[in-house]
Write a structure and sequence with these properties.
Blueprint (H helix, E strand, L loop, with lengths): L5 H6 L1 H16 L1 E2 L9 H7 L10 E2 L2 E2 L5 H18 L3 E3 L5 H12 L5 E3 L17 H4 L2 E2 L12 H11 L3 E4 L10 H11 L2 E5 L4 H5 L12 E5 L10 E5 L19 H13 L5 H14 L2 H23 L3 E2 L8 E5 L7 H11 L1 E2 L1 E3 L13 E5 L1 H5 L4 H16 L1 E2 L2 E2 L2 H15 L12
Parallel strand pairs: 1-13, 5-6, 5-7, 7-8, 8-9
Antiparallel strand pairs: 2-3, 4-10, 9-10, 11-12, 12-15, 14-15, 16-17
Helix pairs in contact: 3-11, 4-11, 5-10, 7-8, 12-15, 13-16
Bound molecules: pyridoxal-5'-phosphate (PLP).
Pyridoxal-5'-phosphate binds next to helix 5.
Length: 440
């Protein structure tokens, strides 16, 4: 059963049936997609509160519509909690998601055509970091940087490129980099070339809260994030940072709000790129931030990393080739070329066996993006279920067995897939690893 869906069941059995199927699948699968997690029942409930009915264009005390007394309070609550949790001087909790948060940063700090340097998409950057076809390269001049052949970032190489490109915005952060970011090194490069530094911590927000990843806030002009993924909030976005004056503003003008980064970000979000905020999402974020401020969240973040390391070791023992040789964070990028199995095909077979992962390009991938050589996995969701190192050992074993059951694109021993599937159903159905908000 799924909590609180009774009205949907009565009103719309078709939508109800789909929601139940999705919930059952999320409960039965081993979810290893590193950007996915399970939000708590409290966060899911907060998403369904009457805040969903309210239009609230503007900011607390400066709204266009009447009736904002509770909206203002819940938004200020989320802002204060975000500032405290991340040690930031300002926070904007209105972005609809991570991509609009990044769009707001571009809109606030750059002019169209300004040069930007972010991690390239095939090297593990996000679409909004300057990928072809995205606004970030259509309206700005994108000069992506990449890691070394072995997948590690090389800050000297980034510096050399930045000295040539002279970007107006340098972006640290990505979606498939399994190592720690050196925000201090990125800040030094940004200072040297006169760029703003944005850290996009969508993937690692929870690790920063749990202090198992270096903190970007002291080093960056702006920090953007999603509010889901590791943070386990509702789907949404966040912009954080220091209250700094914009570059190139005279001493006399530097005190004006519009010449300071917070003022610019606020105006970029509304009226710049968005209308009314999703207040139910903001209420749910307030709840998630409260949850993340508790000691058990820091323990969760530390366990996410321990589990990722344990899983990486198990995979290495079974002959898998990991980009950079392992992980320091919540994710692992497997290069399957040495196994002779295409990454995209392995992701499908994993799914048939009950494991959700995603195909992913690896450094210098010879294959097109929809047929990449790698698979990306991560431990946020399984750790939320309470799985630990012992379960990571089982998962690594299943990966090894499934790879051994394949030859190229073919599954040559389908009975192995069936057996792994039933072992997984036994584990996920045992009641030992409950999923928040789902109770079958
Ligand atoms: C690093 C990074 N930034 C931004 C985003 C965009 O978030 P959203 O999908 O919520 O727009 C993602 C999502 O995958 C991400 O990984």
């Amino acid at each position: 059963m799924v909590f609180g869906f009774e009205h949907v069941r009565r009103m719309d059995p078709v939508a109800y049936d789909l929601a139940v199927k999705e919930a059952r699948k999320q409960s039965e699968q081993i979810r290893l997609i590193p950007s996915e997690n399970y939000a708590s029942s409290a966060v899911l409930e907060a998403l369904s509160t009457s805040f969903a009915n309210k239009y609230s264009e503007g900011y607390a005390g400066r709204r266009y519509y009447e009736g904002q007394e509770f909206v203002d309070q819940v938004e200020l609550l989320a802002i204060e909690r975000a500032k405290k949790l991340f040690g930031a001087e300002y926070a904007n909790v209105q972005p609809y998601s991570g991509s609009p948060a990044n769009l707001a940063v571009y809109f606030a700090l750059l002019q169209p055509g300004d040069p930007v340097m972010g991690l390239g998409l095939p090297a593990g950057g996000h679409l909004t970091h300057g990928a072809r076809l995205n606004f970030s390269s259509v309206y700005y001049q994108s000069h992506p940087y990449v890691g070394r052949e072995d997948g590690w970032l090389d800050y000297d190489q980034i510096r050399d490129q930045a000295l040539k490109v002279r970007p107006r915005l340098l972006i640290a952060g990505g979606t498939a980099y399994p190592r720690l970011w050196d925000f201090a090194a990125m800040a030094e490069i940004a200072r040297e070339v006169g760029a703003y530094l944005l850290a996009d911590i969508a993937h690692i927000n929870g690790l920063i809260i749990g202090k198992v990843h270096p903190d970007p806030v002291p080093h960056c002009d702006v920090v953007s994030s999603t509010t889901h993924k590791l943070l386990r909030g509702p789907r949404g976005g966040l912009v954080l940072g220091k209250d700094r004056a914009l570059q190139g503003v005279s001493e006399a003008d530097a005190l004006k709000r519009i010449n300071r980064i917070p003022g610019r970000i606020d105006r970029a979000i509304i009226p710049g790129i968005q209308g009314g905020p999703h207040v139910n999402q903001i209420a749910a974020l307030a709840v998630a931030l409260e949850e993340a401020s508790r000691p058990d969240y820091a323990a969760y973040a530390a366990q996410v990393v321990k589990n990722a390391r344990a899983l990486a070791e198990g995979l290495l023992d079974r002959g898998f080739d990991l980009v950079t040789g392992g992980t320091d964070n919540h994710l692992i990028l497997i290069d399957l070329r040495n196994k002779g199995i295409p990454g995209w095909r392995f992701a499908r077979v994993l799914y048939e066996a009950g494991i959700e992962a995603n195909m992913n390009s690896v450094p210098n991938d010879p294959n097109p993006p929809l047929k990449p050589a790698g698979v990306r996995i991560g431990t946020p969701a399984v750790t939320t279920r309470g799985m630990k190192e012992a379960e990571m050992a089982h998962i690594a074993r299943w990966f090894g067995e499934l790879a051994d059951a394949m030859s190229g694109e073919e599954v040559v021993r389908p009975e192995v897939v069936d057996r792994v599937r039933s072992e997984i159903l036994e584990v996920t159905g045992s009641g030992r690893f409950p999923v928040p908000g789902i109770d079958f």
